[in-house]
Inverse folding.
């Protein structure tokens, strides 16, 4: 009879083998295993890897965040940069079906400084597949899709076509027990017997329950006759229940540092610093013959959630530029966003007003009302197997 320790070890190895990270020697045929174990050096490497894999599984680490999202709390949640706009904008989203999900969205914009003022988008999705397509008034086409191959692997594609050309991006995400791997290629081509395009790899690894390290690499060749170039970046992220600190450094000498602090349940503060350690990003100074000088910009911001379902985001940077964005639900299905950016140095001001309207078909509204009045068991049963 196996001991509890042997059973635990076997469970760990079985789970790791399913992910391709288990006992390598046991994953091979017995004849090949015998030869490998008698080969000097290789058996020691396999034994070390097996012990390391078992130790990682026993440490209780979880799947980390994507490398590209190391600073998302600062840039996407607290600071108002992504929520600010210029001119007037309205988004009308209509839900036509729940499962499978089918949405239709129309976007209108005036005074945004862009040629595209209207966009029509449709979204369809199930538990395993997702498709989104859009067309604007300039006949630019956008498409995005994703499919869940397994519980740990998701493949996605993005496509954009216009009169200026086309662009295709293919991605695959692999979520391991304590790592996350993203593989990406943009505009791949094998013309002239040479690969051209962009290849990217992002990898994040949980070191402890709070510390995550990341590595990103990019290889590109714009055309087959041009030489290839490569770059890489390193990152670290330390997260607790109250604060998160992160940093990313690229091979070109660009550094991004971010820190966010949860002051209360409704208030968050954040600081972000962008550094050019080599000074090569200031093209105007370089063209004027000035020597490269390291430079940087720091942004400090705060996010406040109010009980009336409104959110205020405000920021100020080291150049004296002020910005804020206010989100408020003026009705259960209507959200209004007011944003402004004031640049004291350039004496400019940008103001934006946006409306997001959610509408539902009569059948969907009736279904949602039933779900709200039904108990939890009936709601779960409906969402698992809705009537056709």
């Amino acid at each position: 009879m196996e001991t509890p320790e042997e059973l635990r070890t076997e469970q760990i190895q079985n789970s790791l083998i399913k992910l391709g990270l288990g006992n390598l020697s046991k994953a091979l045929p017995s004849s090949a295993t015998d030869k490998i174990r008698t080969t000097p050096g290789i058996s020691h490497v396999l034994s070390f890897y097996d012990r390391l894999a078992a130790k990682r599984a026993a440490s209780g680490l979880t799947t980390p965040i994507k490398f590209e999202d190391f600073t998302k709390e600062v840039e996407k949640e607290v600071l108002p940069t992504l929520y600010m706009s210029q001119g007037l904008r309205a988004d009308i989203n209509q839900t036509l079906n729940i499962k499978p999900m089918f949405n239709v969205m129309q976007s209108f914009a005036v005074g945004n400084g862009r040629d595209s003022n209207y966009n029509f988008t449709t979204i369809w999705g199930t538990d395993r597949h997702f498709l989104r397509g859009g067309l604007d008034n300039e006949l630019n086409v956008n498409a995005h899709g994703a499919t869940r191959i397994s519980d740990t692997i998701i493949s996605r594609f993005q496509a954009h076509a216009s009169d200026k050309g086309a662009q295709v991006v293919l991605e695959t995400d692999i979520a391991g027990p304590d790592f996350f791997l993203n593989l990406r290629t943009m505009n791949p081509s094998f013309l002239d017997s040479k690969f051209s395009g962009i290849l990217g790899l992002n990898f994040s690894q949980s070191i402890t329950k709070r510390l995550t390290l990341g590595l990103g690499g990019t290889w590109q060749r714009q055309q087959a006759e041009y030489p290839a170039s490569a770059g890489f970046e390193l990152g670290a992220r330390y997260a607790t229940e109250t604060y998160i600190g992160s940093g990313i450094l690229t091979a070109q000498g660009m550094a991004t540092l971010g820190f966010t602090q949860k002051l209360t349940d409704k208030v968050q503060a954040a600081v972000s610093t962008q550094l050019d350690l080599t000074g090569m990003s200031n093209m105007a100074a370089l063209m004027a013959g000035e020597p490269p000088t390291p430079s940087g910009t720091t942004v400090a911001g705060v996010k406040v959630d109010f009980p009336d379902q409104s959110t205020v985001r405000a920021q100020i940077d080291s150049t004296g530029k002020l910005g804020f964005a206010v989100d408020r639900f003026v009705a259960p299905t209507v959200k209004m966003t007011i944003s402004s950016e004031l640049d004291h140095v350039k004496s400019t001001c940008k103001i934006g007003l946006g409306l997001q309207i959610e509408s539902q078909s009569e059948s969907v509204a009736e279904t949602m009302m039933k779900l709200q009045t039904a108990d939890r068991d009936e709601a779960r049963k409906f969402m698992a197997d809705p009537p056709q």
